[in-house]
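Notebook B, p. 112. Complex prediction, attempt 2.
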Amino acid sequence: MTTLIDLNNASRDDFVAALANVFEHSPWVAEQVAMKRPYAGIAQLFMAMKAAVEQAPSELRLALIKMHPDLADKTQRAAGLTDDSFAEQNSAGLDRLSGAEYDAFQRVNDAYRAKFGFPYIVCVRRHTKDSILRDFERRLPNDIAVEMQTSVEEICRIAALRLDQIVMADDRLAVHGRLSTHVLDTHSGKPAAGIAVELIELAGLGTSRVVTRALTNADGRTDQPLIGGRPVPAGTYELLFSVGDYFARRGVPLSDPPFLDRIPLRFSVSEPEGHLHVPLLVTPWSYATYRGS
Amino acid sequence: MTTLIDLNNASRDDFVAALANVFEHSPWVAEQVAMKRPYAGIAQLFMAMKAAVEQAPSELRLALIKMHPDLADKTQRAAGLTDDSFAEQNSAGLDRLSGAEYDAFQRVNDAYRAKFGFPYIVCVRRHTKDSILRDFERRLPNDIAVEMQTSVEEICRIAALRLDQIVMADDRLAVHGRLSTHVLDTHSGKPAAGIAVELIELAGLGTSRVVTRALTNADGRTDQPLIGGRPVPAGTYELLFSVGDYFARRGVPLSDPPFLDRIPLRFSVSEPEGHLHVPLLVTPWSYATYRGS
Amino acid sequence: MTTLIDLNNASRDDFVAALANVFEHSPWVAEQVAMKRPYAGIAQLFMAMKAAVEQAPSELRLALIKMHPDLADKTQRAAGLTDDSFAEQNSAGLDRLSGAEYDAFQRVNDAYRAKFGFPYIVCVRRHTKDSILRDFERRLPNDIAVEMQTSVEEICRIAALRLDQIVMADDRLAVHGRLSTHVLDTHSGKPAAGIAVELIELAGLGTSRVVTRALTNADGRTDQPLIGGRPVPAGTYELLFSVGDYFARRGVPLSDPPFLDRIPLRFSVSEPEGHLHVPLLVTPWSYATYRGS
Amino acid sequence: MTTLIDLNNASRDDFVAALANVFEHSPWVAEQVAMKRPYAGIAQLFMAMKAAVEQAPSELRLALIKMHPDLADKTQRAAGLTDDSFAEQNSAGLDRLSGAEYDAFQRVNDAYRAKFGFPYIVCVRRHTKDSILRDFERRLPNDIAVEMQTSVEEICRIAALRLDQIVMADDRLAVHGRLSTHVLDTHSGKPAAGIAVELIELAGLGTSRVVTRALTNADGRTDQPLIGGRPVPAGTYELLFSVGDYFARRGVPLSDPPFLDRIPLRFSVSEPEGHLHVPLLVTPWSYATYRGS
């Protein structure tokens, strides 16, 4: 990681080297914006890079699009991806696909490339496997002009996240979301401390996976947001709260087995950069939740 | 099915024949109570049969216990169970066990029989596979006197349900429970009609299964209780409500995908003869539930 | 009270005498429908009377309108109202007006009569004092044709309620509403028994008054609906639940004074013939309500 | 207001002058602690003053108690209170008593003084009129030793609040509470902005009064806590939320009049230094609240 100040003061070559892969295999973007230094903030720097791409001749934009690898393509993975692409694809679990999932992605890539002549590109850090497949279904019927435009937008989203990871500045790009929870024990009228919480990403195809586990603290919150410092991938989740153990520990009279034991809250994320708060109000016999903020 | 009046008026032989298998392979119970006719109600008849068993010499009670088959025993099933036992075991899904479940029940039967010298008996219509295994775990540490007593109690529960299916009378035995739901749409302030509801029995071991599917009517209720006219088997369930489709049909603005789509309410049943009401209060952005009655 | 059968079989004179004041001081309505007997139900009888009024020459309809007394007019009350009018006006508390309320009604009557030349008529059993004044404000700007029509509709509502009180039949006129409540203690997971409930009619002008008091029974309900067997007067109400005493009696640990003691639920009734259910879900630290049905 | 640093560096006389009335008419407390300077924080300074009082000879403590005025005593108010006492008594509304309230306080003062020989002292900033009268009822049966002890505790609470208003330091005395609210519109799934909120102190005797009015902001909160920077006086409150106007402005279909218009949440405060959060989750047809933190 480097600072914006250092980048402003760096030699042209060092500047370009630092930002060479913000746009995949396309150091020309960094080259074009090097001369416009200094930048007052990372937002200004990013806007300059985005403008360079958007105003580039369409052949160059098409070349940029074609620089991107297919999603979850085993041959390409074996041949080597850029470190960035590799980490990004893994973030959505594209390195751990089941056979059925692998086939589904293969079909996506092939159908898309057959129609448009370039790879299907999506900012995978903003997605789960399921939402990628939904996004693909939505985009495949488009015409090529729309898809060139959409591809550039997705590439800019990828670039913003890469830039955010490279450059430290006083300002921030609005590329991070947050998912948080809170458990209020309305039986005792106090925040519920010590409740085990599990966040699970539900998969339509293939298998669900645990995203994170946490314990509620004295405030009924988790010390860290369930997801923070990154986009909250679009998709469907289940939060599981172990309330049976909690009330048993407190000595509250329960039925056997307890009426409520592990409470699942199932919800979908549609705005990866939003702040989503999903609280639980609970007694041994009732509960409520709502989309908070 | 017959009526209590007919039974009161029947010949001794017909009376015994009708009730011969209320207690498994033990027509002597019916024989003993035939002479005490007429019975004012089915409850009185059942109490007489129960008293006959409880006051029988302990050898006879032990013989009665030993008349019962093992649970989910393939050899015995092949050799033939009474129709009653066959239907009862199937009601809890003991005819559709996975390999792991079959092994678990085999261990239960063997461990129990090895310790006590008689089969493990439980009124399976009041249980799910999981709750049978839990019941077994709880009972195995008991001494033989307690287990003889418990076995007789379970046999009487089985008998009450069999009697209820054979005899029609003005009064009823309290052997049935009820599980019901209700969906209130607090977005429109009205009962939610046309919501697809699915009741799933969750299995710890092996696979979950759909118990029933229903649509809510104009009152936000299902036309029939989800479970009724029989005990509600002890166990853990999930109710799934398709609220995403419902609000979409009503034209309510939703996120894409909807924040709430299929809402699971997970709860356990501990009183098979109780009336359990599990309602849902719901908007596209919030919901609540509670144990009602 | 009489039965429809008796009315069908009565002499013409007896029939007319029984229904002479269903329409205020206007036996001609009963006279007109006497010849069409027998009636299959009370609904059919009422429809016939309504049709007679609606199809009467407009002079006759105007005369019918003018037969009605002013609301809460002291002079007319002193001179004597029909028994029906007297009871109806008292039901809305028009016999217990404060000075300010009396003045308000006086202004209503005068303004209305000055504009239209006939008294302001409303079916007071469907109203509270406040909703009468609101209804008046809404109707005063109308033209005379609309108000003649509205007056006849209100007269027919009055008539339906009078007929319902006179005639017993197999069918019922849909003139009654219901207001009910239910308290569920989500701290113990059981219906809350023994909670004192008070229903108060809130008055904008003048003073609020207690409509009824009740105790919840073992089901968490009141033995009788809070309002039933009559319209639920349009207006604003407060339900007061003494939950502090309830939880104290149960030995639940509370703050001193209790966080929640007397919980008010404030709501308005807009459909006097509807079934309105206003439940309370409560712990010592939280509560919820909703419009149920 | 002065800073702790200045007080640490001030002459003995200036120090005593600044803190002379922290304990009513009793500069000797400040005199005793002047020599122990410097103080690392306001908490340390306060502990020293408190210790000086608690360790003083009992005649001196009694004299300190007797230095305090009666509550709401017209004669003493006319003769002149210290500025502090004057402002404190007014904070609880003791300057705006109805005749009945004035009489009630008179009886309190007389009964207490008759029994103990010194005035009834309570830290009025932590109380409402009603809770003062409740506190008195609780304390009157005590014996004199308990009441001397209780009086000193109350005097120290008064002193802590006075000190907090005089001295600025890096640390803070834990003398302030907070009352806040939040409105979440679960009809739209968003914080409810622009809802008029009114906080009313309910009085058993005499009249209720509006404590504050506010509008919810874009977060559904009020810009300032409803009560903050001071104790939340023990007592019973009603929060009134104008939700009818809010939903009407948003164009949500409502009944006429709206089912919910001005929603009252009634609750009691028992810990004046606590942080009490009373949120509202609301649709046009339902609402919920709970004690949050």
